[in-house]
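From the shared-data thread, chain only:
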Amino acid sequence: MRPFARPFPLERLSLEARIIYTLFAGFMILGYVSSGWLYLDDDLDLGAERARVYYLGQPAPTAPAPAAAPADDDGPDLDLPDEAALERAPEPHAAGGMRFEKPARQVMETFHFHLFSMSVCWVIIAHIFMMGGAARGPKLALIGISGVATVVHLLTPVLIRFASPDFAFLMGPGAALMALTWTWMTVQPVYEMWRVPLPSRRGEDGSGR
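Structure, as tokens:
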């Protein structure tokens, strides 16, 4: 536990440890990229409206009232749709069509799974980040912000679906803040592991690395 108690030169880790941590960071980065793709594919953004529609659905569009066709001596009157109203009719919100309310069980199952998996990943990357050479204050700030952002991102879908659509404004900012802080805590230790040691550090450990 000594490396977690104070800043530690990560470039002094054994080659095996650096390879393991770097591969883990690579897996995490791939996970971030795939998460971003899924987020955008679900038609979500930083705003509240799309998050509200994604979890609560959208009302079915109402058909425009038919317009009466002008009377013609040669035939009966016909009620035809107003072409101008059809052109103004809104398109479905999502590219795939109408959005329906997410089933309560689906939202809860996703929350249950992410509650365990994301907390474990956060603990791992936070501990590796703690081993780095950054000052204690920035470490505490970044770890704290990332933890709060993760909790917000986990709880927001549940709050939207079961409590109130007013919580939808948390979805975008929570996801963005979580992505930024997690990425920083993942990349920074890898940079420290593989950077060229300063001459003073070479002399301290006597390794000449």
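Residues 10-56+101-196 form a domain with the Four Helix Bundle (Hemerythrin (Met), subunit A) fold (CATH 1.20.120).
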